[in-house]
Structure formats: C-alpha cells, structure tokens
Amino acid sequence: MLVPGVHLLDLAGPAQVFSGARDIGLPYELAYVADAAEVPSAQGSALRAETDLPVLTADDLIVVPGWRAPRLAGTGPLSPALLDWLRAHPGAVASVCAGADALGRAGLLDGRRCTTHHDLQDELARRYPAATVVRDVLYVTDGPVVTSAGIASGIDLALHLVATRHGPATAARIARSMVVYARRNGGDQQASALLRHRSHVDDTVHRLQDVIESRFHERLTLADLAGVAACSERTVTRMFTRATGLTPLRYQQILRVERAEHLIGHGSTVESAARAVGFEDGRMLRRLRAAVSSPPR
C-alpha cells in the first residue's frame, strides 16, 4: 500500500524478499495499490499503482512502507476508502517505519504492541495512547499486526514473515540471494554498536574504529592502535575516550559481546560464540556481557 512520499528502500526491501520467495517457487504475487495511479517517492521517482482495491482473503498480507516523515502529524495522506480497506483486511498487516501511523489511523494498533523508527517512537505513542510502543527494537509481532523500525529493518521484517510461514532455512536462502549479511532478530537494537559510537567528527578516531571493527576478534594492543594513529598510546586513549565515551578496549569488548549475542540468538552455544569473537572461553563472555551492559565509566 503506497503513500505519497514513500521511501524507496522501505518498499523495495520487503518487495525484494517476497519476489525472491516467488522466484524459488513459493506462491507469492505482488500488487501495489494507492489512492492515485502515480505515487511520488521521497527520492524523486514516481511509482505506478492500482487504484481498484482488490478483495483480499486471510492468506493475503498488506505491507505499508514508510514515507518521508520528520514528524507523523500532517504527513502520509490517505483516503478514508484506503483506510477502510486496510481496517477491514481479514489477514496480516505489516508496516515499515512511518507506515505504523497508517495502521494507527486504521485503529489496528489499539491494544497492541508496536514499534517504528526511533525518531518517531515518542510521537507514535502520543498519537495512539491505546497502543504500547516498544522502543529500540527492529520489529514487533502482535497477533496479525507486525510493525518494524526504519528503512532497512523492512528486510528483517519480511524475512521474519517468510521464516514464520515457510521456515528459517527458506528465509536464509532468500537472505543469501540478497547478499544480506545476517538475518536479525526482532529484539535486536535499531542502532548497533557500529553506529551508536560513530556520531563524533574525529577522523583519526573513526580510522581507529575501522581497525577495531575489522579485527575485533583479534588481540589488538594500544601499540597497534598508536601505530595507526601515529601518536602515543596515551594520546590514543585520550582521543578515543573523548570522541566515543569509551576506551578502545571497552569498545572492542562491546563489539565482541554484541556479535556473540547475535550468534547465540541464532543457535550457537555460549562457548562457540565466545571463541568465534575472540574470547578465550564462555566464562569470559558471561562476565563481559554483564560488564558491557553497565554504564561506561
């Protein structure tokens, strides 16, 4: 269901997943509906859509991609007819990013858990007080309603729906064909450690982070980092802490623990996940899981 100002990746991510499912023989047919035959996208290109709304069954899925929305109020125009069609759907509905607002206007979020892009979570909660907005997760499933965070999380949402309907092996096959690095769980944070500590403007520290991220499973010393930055070990620690709020060692530990948590969430044992990310054994990982979750000093 296309809304004026739709973000292309909000649309293309899920569409690619379901067309990939069709390509391997699953019975998917994609259709695009809107209030007008031509829908402008946020990125400038126009999209074609059907204006005759199809009669759906419980086997059908409606996906509402998000649109350009610095705020929800006053954005995403939808006709009463389109909202009525969405509201009356007997099957599952899903949204990406601001698309959750369309579900809210149709009354589909009332009494349900949901999520959206982290910049819009507070406003979504104010607009729909009967809903429970779950913050900083990739997607939330509550009965037939599935909502996801922003942009690329629509891929995670669609892969989750495929896995639920056809099994995780099928979802993994589609993810591989899309060259998706990993299928993330719904409870994963919207912003990984790779992004949370990258909001500074220190180019040297960014270079150091690049090195740590590419070799986070190795034993990196301050001397190694000092060689990259062409300065003393003491200066490396001072610059890194000033820019990120963390020491280089703590940053590496956070990356290791986050990757280990991902591996455990996808079936690895604590021991195998610990060794895969560079820890000596599971005991060290268990200790650091608690330490990394505490506020940095």
TrEMBL record:
The keyword Lipid biosynthesis does not apply. CDD domains: GATase1_AraC_1. SMART domains: HTH_ARAC (SM00342). Keywords: Transcription, Transcription regulation. SUPFAM superfamilies: Class I glutamine amidotransferase-like (SSF52317), Homeodomain-like (SSF46689). Residues 206-297 form the HTH araC/xylS-type domain. One of its GO terms (molecular function) is sequence-specific DNA binding. Pfam families: DJ-1_PfpI, HTH_18. PANTHER family: ARAC-FAMILY TRANSCRIPTIONAL REGULATOR, HTH-TYPE TRANSCRIPTIONAL REGULATOR RV1931C. This is AraC family transcriptional regulator. It comes from Actinokineospora fastidiosa.
